[in-house]
Design brief:
By secondary structure, the chain is mostly helical. The chain has one domain. It has six helices and no strands.
């Protein structure tokens, strides 16, 4: 969705400029750059989501996929070329906390729903 809005951004601005339009578009370059950055992050997260949706995915497979995502965030948050550059997600989740979540019934239920 974010990528699509970036693709049609110029057309959206043109529509917002019409006299009878009530649309408001954030025209700042910084806003556009942030949406591009977040779209890349969501793309990486979507890879994990698709992995979790594979038929027969075990709990250990899910834990592995989530750990790989958090590892990519941790490593990438200091790499300006990474989609996760300056991302704060992994810094809030410790290994101990992850292990506690993985052992909770809610985790298994959530994986089952996915």
């Amino acid at each position: 969705m974010i990528e699509r809005s970036n693709d049609i951004r110029e057309a959206l601005i043109e529509v917002a400029d019409c006299d009878d339009s009530e649309s408001v578009i954030d025209r700042r370059v910084s806003f556009k750059n942030k949406t591009i950055k977040y779209a890349k992050q969501l793309g990486e997260i979507n890879v994990v989501t698709l992995e979790l949706q594979k038929t027969g995915c075990t709990l250990s497979d899910c834990r592995w996929a989530l750990d790989k995502l958090l590892q990519a965030v941790t490593v990438g948050k200091s790499d300006s070329e990474s989609p996760f550059y300056q991302c704060k997600l992994a810094s809030t989740i410790s290994t101990r906390t992850r292990l506690q979540y993985y052992q909770r019934p809610e985790f298994e239920l959530g994986v089952t729903k996915v």
